[in-house]
Structure formats: structure tokens, C-alpha cells
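Appendix B. One record, verbatim.
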Amino acid sequence: MSDPADHPPQTPRPAPQTPSPDFPAPPPGHVAGPAYAPPAGYAAPVGYAAPVGYAPPAGYVAPAGTPGPYTPNPQPAAGPARRGRGLGLVALIVALTATVGAAIVVAVAAFGIGLGTGAEIASRAFGADFDWSILTPVRGRVLLAESTFWLATALGVWALVQGIVAIVRGRGRGLAIAAVVVAAIGPVVFFVVLQAFLTAGYAAA
């Protein structure tokens, strides 16, 4: 029986590799190297996260004229919806009706009153108490002037209130301001026209 020390261990030959078109067979006598193994303590990353953005190194100063990062153009903010002017327009129409319309009607009535009572008033002594019976022949015109005054007053209050509401809500603000002014001066116009045409009627009698 022979001693195992007389026969040294032999290196096993690598298994023959089957040649393929993509990987040709190694030359004769080639010995494959050891397989790659990661170093001790190395742990493969669990997952790869893409970088959020490029950041220059610390201390880096961009040269003058270098464009900055891209920022999208801001979209213009949508303006408030345009409101209708109907509220202010209606207030102005009512105010003009109350002021101008009443002035025309009272001018006709006052001239008739002055024309019908002027001769009787002129024949009375100056400073005497006013006799309301003088107005009996012209009572229809007196009633017309009085009813016109109260109707114009109601329309003027309507125009005044609606004009203020239109100014506050911004619905035809310019028209509403004009309506408030016209409605406010309506009573003044009424009495000025009344007195002027009464005097004209007295003079024509």
C-alpha cells in the first residue's frame, strides 16, 4: 500500500465551456480567475433615489450674466366679474323723472294758478290776511300741483335709496352718484319753479 504523501493533490481542471456565437471558447490552457465577491462589511443599497436637483458645490459663485433657474411665468389673476349697471341706471331715471317731470307739471299748474288768481290778489289790500277762497276757481290746478309734489317726493326717496345701494354694491356707481345728486336737489328745483311761474302768472293776469 502506497503512502498518500507520495501523491500530491492535483488541481481540478475547469469544466469545459460550451462555445457560443456571443462568447467564444477560451484559448487552451486558460484558467478562469476566482469569482468576484464584495468586500467584507459592504451592504448593497436597498434602492436608488433619483437626485432632486443639481446643487453647485459650496463656495461656488456664478459669473455675472448667468441666467438663474427657470421659473414659469405667473398667470395673471382673474379680475372680479364685471357687475351690471342696471341698479344705478334705474336710480338715475327715477331721479330725473321726479325732478324734471315734476318741475314741468308744477310749472304749468303754477302759471294757471297765478293767472286765475292774479287779478283778485292784486285788488286786495297789501298785508291783509290771505283768503283761501280765492283758490276756488283754480282748485283743479292747486290739486295738480299738490299731488305732483307728493308723487315727486316718493320717487325722489326711491331714487335716493336705490342710488346709495348701487354705490355701495358698485353697480353703476357713476350713474348712482348722479341719481343721488339729482334726487337731493329735486325739492329745491320744485319750489323754485313753483314760485317763478306763480309770479309769471300774476304778472300776466
